Amino acid sequence: MQHITGISRNQMTISSLESSISTDNPIRFIDAFVEHIDLKALGFEVQILKTEGRPSFETNIFLKLYLYGYLNGLRSSRKLGKECLRNIEMQWLLEGIGPNYHSISDFRKNNPIALKNLFKLFVSFLKDADLVGCQTIAIDGTKSRAHNSKKANFSQKKIETHLAYIEEKTQEYLSDLEQNDTQENNTKITTIQAKIERLKANKINYELLTEKLKESGEPQISTTDQDARALLVQGVVVEVSYNIQTAVDNKHNLVVATHTINRNDLNALGAIALEAKENLEVETFTVLVDKGYHNGREIAQCKEHNITTIVAHPTPGRSKESTIQPEYLVAQFQYNKSDDTYTCPQGEILKTTGRWHKKSGRTEQSGYQFKKYRTPTCKECPVKHLCTSRTTGREIDRSEYADAVEENNKRYQENPQLYRTRQEINEHIFGTIKRQWGYNHTNLTGLEKVNGEHSLIMLVYNIKRTINILGVPDLIAKIKNWKSPYKIKVLFLLKTNYLKPKSGFVFFPLQFVA
Asked: Which pLDDT score is estimated for 392?
């Protein structure tokens, strides 16, 4: 039985790159999208034409290159450079141009803010195309490993441990040096002296790290990527990483806001919620957030900006030494807003002097004010041993953000079905990006550059999902009809194609005249 045979490699064919790309190929949208926008207005570094020297590449070449690369799981500048020469889709997209890897790499490093602006612009397009509902937003974060090992990350405790080890080994080597000196073992003496000198150099480096740590005011410092931090990833697993924050609309699960931080989720809700509001240009919406974001100050900030929060309330923990029984937890005390008092389960009234106390945090921003509520009848209460172990009686603290927190907790209890949709809206995005695409780490250093790359990743995710929703032809039609504030303005366009033969034979089309 005869096998299927291919075309001979020596067969000469007449074709064009255009005929090789189907009408529903995603690269056609990439080309239309980039050609539609004014890159200079978005903040991209645009090369200026020079009268002397080698001509430079157009900026849109690199943007098309990176959009195609990240859409297909390629982000290495060297790999992208190779694809320009062997990939027929890339040749169509770049019209046969093949930039070197160094120029490709510089574009991503030099345009982080512009990439962030490009993501915001695409969100604006999604809104105008009616692809986002702007009513319910799910917020979550995920960790992306930084270009910094655990060994190159130091806290004050870790530095002190290293210094203690150096001191211990130094004393051990000095004892060995004294012992070998009496035995006149010159070879071993030289080896020990070299080890002592190395320990001295290491001690100086750790002392310099201590000074830098104190000057920074941060709890830790990284030497390869100074913005990277050791963050809790899952359970007790810690990785030196960044925290990618995302806000996802529930209509088509498209990302409407994203930025990267180097801390945990506790103080991150306000910033990402406000960014989503700014990008969508709406007055109000509802955000669904897990309990890792439950923070009174952040919830109150959302309330001030007319953003409705449904943040899961963390279960209050109880220490083994605590004598408080479940029926006497703070949640069982009724707050009376009219006279600013609390009523305990026994019916007694706890009052406040009205004085605000200050609770300090690791940073000035994380501190807050609170009032204390007490009652003198607590001392004679028959169930005092079930309520508190304090000799002066039970004392309740009420934060300045308590009103906003109580309103949020009430919404959380009243909307269980809505809150359950949170995972359906945003969790799969991180699975797609990290597990399927392999973008679980970054090779860039510095928070600003990492922010730019993660904005590019989320932009590509939106593009791919939008293509799946509408299809390439419809999406191109929408982007061409879109009245963008960053639409490129062309007064007169004259495009000339030069035919550069690469072989001895050139074929020209023939025109027959009747």
From this structure: 84
